[in-house]
## 1
Amino acid sequence: MRILVTGGAGFIGSHTVVELVNAGFEPIIIDNFSNSDRSALEGLRQILNRDVTFYEGDCNDPETLNAIFEKENLGGVIHFAAHKAVGESVAKPLMYYRNNLDSTILLLETMQRYGVSNLVFSSSCTVYGQPEQLPVTEATPRLPAQSPYGNTKTICEDIIRDTVHSGAALKAIALRYFNPIGAHPSGLIGELPLGVPSNLVPFITQTAAGLREKVTVFGNDYDTPDGTCIRDYIHVVDLAKAHVQALRLLDSQSESSYYDIFNVGTGQGNTVLELIKTFEEVNQLKLNYTIGPRRPGDVEKIYAQVDKVNNVMGWRAEQTLADGLRDAWRWEQNLHLKKSTVTG
Ligand code: WQD
């Protein structure tokens, strides 16, 4: 089955392309490199020992989408392409609403026009805000007041749900990711944050690589065992495999209309300091970090209840936090190795 992967040159998209090929699917990538790098395509070619069909383009451009749907005889779509920086979305809400909502609406319209009925949507645990009860289940209410980025995920979920409920021939799954970390074990693809990383793990690996002076832990006065925030860190390869499993679940649906939501996490929470200690142990190095003030908007603790994705979708995380941190460090080291050989 030919699957359009929007944002397929990105962090989670590129890892999902690998798992799609491994599972016998044929991925077709569209990416405009607004938050990814062309080098990911070379990494994919080396891992897969083949080229992957690629279109450089924007999911907000009807002509680009029509040309791809016309030519590629698609069986489904995985929609990753979106702006995803929480802080930036607060500063530029209209850019986020325009890009993230319009691309999803245009994709749904184009899918309907070409009779493509399987959609996996990249959503996020950020839709829960700070949940009252932990672990969060899919029935946990989504909180309206979060970042514009988080709101775009909530609204896109509703747009997809309402389209399915309108009777359109659409089968869709929204995957609510927790915190993706790590990299492909080959070290050939991984996270490539533009500029200064806002996420914890790339900031850690860049600090360990000497690109950053130190990691600042944003607050240690939270109501947690060591005072630092708790998150559910999921290996990006596990997360990629969840998308393959979601496609299989969609394909198995006899109904022409289907919509469901799954939390995709490990079900385990770790504090920031536990993650730093694990990074130091597994990579046998000392990390320079300091405790600083809280970051506004941070959720104190969140981790997933994963019974539904385990039992209904038949997917479960296999990699540990240590695996993710080992792979993230290998990727960071390879990045500099590549640069040094290129610069000579
Ligand atoms: C994790 C923890 C920080 C950096 C966001 C989005 C989510 C998804 C992942 C897109 C927090 C702490 C971080 C640092 C720190 N994005 N931290 N020092 O905020 O949980 O989730 O990114 O899909 O939707 O909401 O991830 O990695 O930024 O932070 O102490 O330099 O690390 O306070 O507790 P977050 P994060």
Note: The chain has two domains: 2-181+234-264, 200-230+267-343.
## 2
Amino acid sequence: LVRLRARLARSQNSLGKGLLTLLSREHLDEDTWEEIEETLLTADVGVKPTQELVDRLRERVKVLGTRTPQDLRSLLREELLTLVGTDFDRVVKTESAADTPGVVMVVGVNGTGKTTTTGKLARVLVADGRSVVLGAADTFRAAAADQLQTWGERVGARTVRGPEGGDPASIAFDAVKEGIAEGADVVLIDTAGRLHTKTGLMDELGKVKRVVEKHGPLDEVLLVLDATTGQNGLMQARVFAEVVDITGIVLTKLDGTAKGGIVVAVQRELGVPVKLVGLGEGPDDLAPFEPEAFVDALIG
Ligand code: GDP
């Protein structure tokens, strides 16, 4: 965890540090406020949240009087925490309400890190003593099923897969069936993310959802977004949210960007919390999203 924090801090702190430096200027003139705004926009915080934060900061700095570094730091910390949100339930739901395994569907555009995230999540669950079945329903990308199976073998989870180009819904159905037969605790289903036609995606994910629900409730739908893709990622999020009810967001490749503001933007966009973050390609590089640790990493 310490290592993850350090990595997050390395990649993120240009935003918070930049803001602190700007707020510490002797004269907080209009140009400086504009620079603060720019810093936030560049970090992908989004237009509205940026405006809100700048308004709040202006107001609070005005009543501060003397601006000691300590004052500024705690003020910025509070406001960033408010922006990121501390009231969301960020727990990934892997327990079923029914007497069946918890079922988690992982969706997102290819290349965002869906399969890797599914594997890492399996690892966390198995380490926690839960038995996991993986469903390789990404039959679009040729290597996806092999990749997932490799993860499964590595962490000790059985992978249910079908023929290449086979029907994702039938694999998802089989995976849940297998999970029930084995008395598994959790079934994780990796899906394909073809975005070129919305109806195609809708048909496919809708069908996966429907067949899974024949066995019991779908407990969590995680949308995987690549944090380095900025506005593009937000557009993807919008399309997926129209197609299926997203219950949580996984932001991957947060290690590869200083644009941590995407956390704020995507939560606003979907009204759904970031629950997990990917901080690298390795098996241990998936972490629960903790607002306080995140904001502390931002400020450095
Ligand atoms: P999928 O097509 O969405 O299933 O994507 P993959 O799981 O195959 O991941 C695509 C690439 O992104 C792979 O090279 C992964 O190792 C890499 N990747 C996934 N998550 C992360 C992350 O959190 N950080 C970094 N740096 N790379 C990641």
Note: The pocket of guanosine-5'-diphosphate is lined by residues 108, 110-116, 141, 144, 252-253, 255-256, 278-281, 285 (CB under 6 Å).
## 3
Amino acid sequence: PADAEAPLGLRFPDGFVWGAATSAYQIEGATKEDGRGESVWDTFSHTPGRIKGGDTGDVAADHYHRYAGDLDLMRDLGLRSYRFSIAWPRIQADGAGAPNQRGLDFYRRLVAGLHERGIAPMATLFHWDLPQALQDAGGWESRDVALRFADYADAVFTALGDDVPVWLTINEPKTVVQNGYLQGHHAPGRQDPEAAHLVAHHLQLAHGLAVQALRSRGGPGRIGPAFNLHPCYPADSSPAAAAATTLYDGYENRFYLDSVLTGRYPADVLDDLGPDSRLARGIRDGDLDIIATPVDLLAVQYYTPIYVTAAGGTVTRWPTSQADWQQIHPDGLYDILTRVTRDYGPLPISITENGLPTTDALGPDDTVDDAGRVTFLRDHIAAAHRAIADGVPLESFHVWSLMDNFEWAEGYDQRWGLIHVDYPTQRRILKRSAHWYRSVIADNAV
Ligand code: PNW
């Protein structure tokens, strides 16, 4: 509906940064080129039955070959920031040893192209594509993988450290833990709670070691973690629901936030797991100091709230999107931003993902009418505006995603982009939401 685009009259502070986000495996394709090794997502997507429709990231949006045209589209939208990820197996095919120059060169070209167009690069070091060789050596259950990650990060910083102003370490450690090791519908496809929480610790450790690697180089870049945060609300007014919600919040949010920002894991979560858990046995003296190495910013990704019942289950309160786990509730973004600022102090925050999937199709005259995305983004941006007005030091907003891409277990069935990708031809078509977002950026307002 046209009223979704009616201005709300909410201006953002001068210098507020508008952007969009992607990740390597979801858009690049070219999985066998220029010395790239295999990742756990190559293995997983090629395992029959794992991905809807049997889809893989082999070609994806072919961004590895089409990045120059994609950069032009970003410029046309007026983006001030582009968040992308670096594929570890392009830099170290087997996850160790001397960096692969051709892999580094791709990201050097990408970063140079961003600067030429006046767009600030924001680089994520790890968006889930672990080199398969490291998985074969135990994956994130192995403490050694965190040390390997520090070496990889150091190689990337050496090549790109002067040209990337903002670094993010690990994308959504919680999603690796929950989807990869508890539910098993993401790589590596495990259902092992004991392993899962040890994996969480090693991901946090890897984060801290990468922060230290950047600090020891010196240089201009800022760095922080990228957490998907879920505001947790009790499903009813009972004391039991309140208690269950607190513990749920411990696993969803405080486990990650507390360790990085206070140097402790939450006591209620540690108690819940017990003293003999693999996590408890895997934490060594000094680990929390590494994890809590001071960061420059917090990257927040927001998609959905969670409503927790007295029995510790969850219920759905709001309309869901095409992603059945996503309830549309813009106030949740306000709640999580203000809560983080209240509980952990005024650390600069970037919203590095927010968006929804739509079932839009290519319409007549090459139009894509994704009015639902316009409404969703407008309402979430308005919630972010309210958080700023209430004192949250929010610097930027990145839409997930710049373009349609490989949505993990959902394959190409879910389209999350501002830009439609016609996969058979790889043509890009700006959706209605992309035109709308261009005007938001130009006006610095919704
Ligand atoms: C993020 N949840 O994953 C990822 O960073 C992206 O790669 C992905 O494409 C995007 O969101 C859309 O799914 C999430 O269950 C996975 O709340 C699960 C949740 C949130 C984000």
Note: The mean pLDDT is 97.
## 4
Amino acid sequence: VSSLLSRCRTFKVLVIGDSGVGKTCLTHRLSAGQFPSRVEATIGVDFRERALDIDGEKIKLQLWDTAGQERFRKSMVQHYYRNVHAVLFIYDVTCPASFSGLVSWVEEWRQNSLGQEIPRFLVGNKSDLRDPSRKEQQVNQEQALSFAKAHGMTFFETSAKNPPAKRVNAQQGNRGLLYQQ
Ligand code: GDP
Ligand code: MG
């Protein structure tokens, strides 16, 4: 078993974005395969793992679920960005303020990533709550798409609660992928 484990490559994935957008629920969904019945507010950072088998190669995603207020704690932040393989920038599609908030998360990434061109993903969460009659109060996909293009990010909309692939009436193909960087 130990030799099998040692052959497993681990990828560090940083999950960032404003408080309440669903970072903890998304990492639960990815690691445990379900929406948590209850989540506590994250303090500092939590770690969850997801094992994957890609073309016969075993890999492990180490998900760093961070707390929103950590952006003010400069010393910790540098630690988060060390040896990171990918960053997920999360916003809530029903909360435009969380989308505007991404500007400062991107800035934080720029300051701490030391010019490394690691894969970045823009993730609009809570797509299950989209309400066509309240379009003005939500983040539209065109806006998010141009943000993704401008910042070299691949763009998804998803839901930790009810992922697109499981929805009966999924309009989006390919599990919520809207733009591939
Ligand atoms: P965090 O602060 O970014 O870690 O956000 P949490 O994961 O703690 O989630 C904040 C709130 O949003 C909780 O009440 C969750 O139940 C809710 N939530 C998270 N993801 C979703 C989702 O995809 N759909 C819906 N409807 N609610 C969600
Ligand atoms: Mg959290």
Note: The radius of gyration is 16 Å.
